[in-house]
Amino acid sequence: MSRLFRILAISFAIALWMAGPLAAEPAKLVILHLNDWDRIDAVDGAGGAGRIAAVIKDEKAKAEASGATVIVTFGGDLISPSLLSGIDMGASMIDLANTVGLDYATLGNHEFDFGPQVLRARIAESKFRWLSGNVALKGQPGFPGAVDAAVVEVGGFKIGLLGLTTPDTPLVSSPGPDVTFEPYASAGARIAKALKDQGADMVIALSHEEYTGDLALMRAVPAIDVVLGGHDHLAFTHYDGQHAVFKAGSQGIFVGRLTLAIDRIEGRSGPKVVWKPDFAQIHTSNVTPDPAAQVKVDGYLAKLDTDLGQFIGTTTTELDSRRATVRNGEATVGNLFADAMRTAVAADVAIINGGGIRGDVTYPAGSQLTRKMVFTELPFGNRTAKLLMTGADVLAALENGVSQVEQGAGRFPQVSGLSFAYAVGKPAGARVSDASIGGKPIDPTATYTVATNDFMARGGDGYATFAPAKALIDDRAAKLMASQIMDHIAAAGTVSPKLEGRSRRLD
Ligand SMILES: [Zn+2]
Q1: Structural domain of 256
Q2: Are 155 and 262 in contact (CB under 8 A)?
C-alpha cells in the first residue's frame, strides 16, 4: 500500500515537473492607479495622503505575497490647484506623492499652472519617474527631468510605459511660449513603436486627457495595450477584449487596481503575448490612514493654518461683506474679488454672485488682510471659469442677477469691467438698462469673455445662459478663486476698492 502510494507520488511529481514549463502560471502585474489628486487631506472622509498610503501599502503587500510585480502610477494633475499649493506651489503634494510611493506619473495640465520653471523644481524633488512623451521645450522633445518612456520587467516580460499630456494645456494652464504639445496619436504611435523595437511585450500609456481622447488613442495606436488616464475625474473602465482604458476618479477617493495576467502562447505565426485584465476601484472611506503619512498631512494642515493667518496686504477703504450689502448692490469687496478674477484670467468682464461672498462682516479702512480672511469670504472652494458669450447672453445674465433683488437673493451680480442700471419696480427680466462693457454699450451680437465661478458657470443661481456658453477655462482647468484673490492682494500690497456705480439702482 505504502509502496504503491510512493510510486504514485513519485509519478505524480515527475508528471508535475514535466508539465511545469508548459503549464507555467502567467506573470502577474498589479497596477495601483491614481489621477487628479491635489488635496493633501480627505474629501468627505475619503482620499487624502493618509488613506491613499494605507491602501497602497496593503495592496502591495497582498500582491507581492502572491508573486505579483506591483507599480503605482499617476495620471496627472498633482501640484495644483489647492489652497496650500497656492502658497507653496505644489511642493507639499510632491512630498506626499513621494510618501505614498508613486512610481510613474504623467504630466497633467495643472502641472504647468505655476510655469515651467516651478515644474522643473517639482520634478527634481520627485522620487518617482515623470513620463512625458508629447511635450517639447524650445523645440527639443521632452521636458527637463522627465523621460518619454520606461520599461518594467514582469516575470520575463517587458512592459513599456509612456506618458502623454493633453495638447489643450496651453489653453488652460501656463506652460509659457517655449513649451509645446504634440498631438496624441503621433506621439503615442512614435513612442509605442520605439518601445516595441526595444522588445516591449506590452505597452501602457499614462494619459492626461478626456476619455474620448483616450479611446481615440486606443483605436489609433493598436500597439498601446492599456491607457491609464486622468483629467476628467471619471472612475472609468473600458475593455473591448484587446485594449483597455482605466481611470480612478479624483482625489484618491478611489485607488484604481488593474491586475494583468500576462502570458505567452503559441499563435498561428509563432509565440505571442496575451494578457487578461481584472479591474477594481478600491474606495478609501473605510481605510485607517497610514500613521506616518497622516503625520505629514497634519503637519501641512498646521502650516497652512499658520500661513493663512499671515498678512498679505492692506485695504485703504472699508470692505463690507455683510449679507444685505453683497446681495443688494455694488459692494467694495465684490469689486475687489471680481477685479482679481477678471485680471487673473484676462477676461473682458467678471460676474460673481453676491451670495458666494460669505464673511458677513466689515473690515474698516486700514485693515490688514490675511489669506484666512479671503478663505472665510469664499469658503466653497469655487474655481474661476472663463466663458465666451454674446452681449445678449451677458444682458440676460444681468437680468437674472437683478431678478430677485427684493428677496435678497444670492444671485445679485458683483461685477468687474462692466456697468449697468436696474429698476426693481419693473418686472423681472426687463430691469436692466444702460449696460456697458469697457465704457461702451453692450453690443448684443458681439462676443465677450466672462470670468465667473464654476457654480454659476454650471448655471447655478439662475444663470442659465452661462451653462451652454463655450468654456475657455472649464472646471478641469480652472484655478481656485480664493488663490487668485490672495495673489492679487499680495501682489498689490495695498488695495483701495471703491463704489464706482458699476451697478446703479434707479428706484
Ligand atoms: Zn487636467
Answers
A1: 22-294
A2: yes
